Amino acid sequence: MELDLEVLARLQFALTIMFHYLFPPLTIGLGMLMVWAEGAWLKTGNPLYESIAFFWTRLFAVNFAMGVATGIVMEFEFGTNWATYSRFVGDVFGSALAAEGIFAFFLESGFLGVVIFGWNKVSPKFHYFATCMVCLGGFFSSIWIVIANSFMQTPAGYHLVEENGRIRAEITDFWAMVFNPSSIDRLIHVWLGAFILGAFFALSISSWYLLKGRHKVESQAMFRISLVFALLSSSAMMLSAHANATMVSREQPAKLAAFEAHFETGTGGTGMYLIGLPDPENERVKYGLKVPGLLSMLVWQDPNKPVTGLDQFPKDERPPVFVPFFTYRIMVGCGLFFLALSWGTFLLTLKFDITRFPWLLKLCVFSVLPAYIANEAGWVSAEMGRQPWIVYGLLKTKDGLSQSVPAHHVLSSMIMFGIVYFLLFLVWVYVMNEKIQHGPFVPSHSDITPEEAREIGLTGGE
Predict the structure, then answer these.
(1) Which has the higher per-residue pLDDT, 194 or 285?
(2) pTM for the full model?
(3) Which residues contact 209 (CB under 8 A, 6 or more apart)?
């Protein structure tokens, strides 16, 4: 059986980037919580918030280290497996990745040492400034990565030049490239996904403490903070989701048609399948539940205006349907779950003690899983929906491969990285579990003594 280089190269990059993406959105979400908690400590002087900020900082550091270790591999893959693509888009990607390193990574990593080790070595105000810079560095990093990816989705600010018999994209307008037609919508969506993950991660831990009766004062405060954060980010995500879908319908109509398994354009309003089983070979959806005119209403605000179907595109330029159809619905379903859980829990806490509802706390404990799933499913939908293009409308994925790397080399490296990543995952789970089991505490550098901490219900310093 002959190995398919394109399939293996795509699979390797998908696995490495999906594993890497377990960490960056969590660090962005936790960074926001760190800024909030430490700011509250500076404002009120309450050691409770110092304890929470210190706890979240320890978890942040572990995930930051994992993100760095797993992110480096992908940049090497551009040169090994995707050399033709790298030559084609190197002018664009190079500027974005250089900006990410200069403006983001060094800002974040430079101040992270102060955040982790400087609690009793710098003033509280400077430490808070360092925490804000670390949080800002995470945002800057996501900005340039999303801009580079958005150029692949909706290219702008470039022209094509021929050099040594090869065509490549060259930037003609840097800011047009930065503010390409999908970058802002996509960036806001990514940020909100990170906020949701950070919020439900913190909500999961605090709910587990409440169920176990541990760290009662800290867990109640963490629960309130993370619940409000979850509620706000989940609500904002609904607006961002609609804006993104509208942008995709305008800039990448084939992708939207794949998301909805919409094969035939038709002359009237376009319905939307809430669920179903796509049959791409026969260009239909089997066993589906369809709401007439709903897709037209969401896209055009007119239930009678047709939405472009896959029949309007050449067959060799149509994205796959089966996987994006389901991953898109998984993402949307998770979003509705977050909205219902955060609002329902919030309304209950207005009248009742949340510990009276252990079933709800258990649901909150497991809510971090769909938060991870939604982030991963969203990227799978976006990237598979762009196919067969690696740079939309300019370069097909099969044409972006390296010409000198044999398929068996890709397979062997994929197996090797699979083993390494599995071991890294075990280490990450072990270290995170150790820190979560240990729980928040008033650190030894705090002005409050362990005895005073216990008197007001906090865990003593260490």
Answers:
(1) 194
(2) 0.89
(3) 215, 216, 218, 219, 222, 439
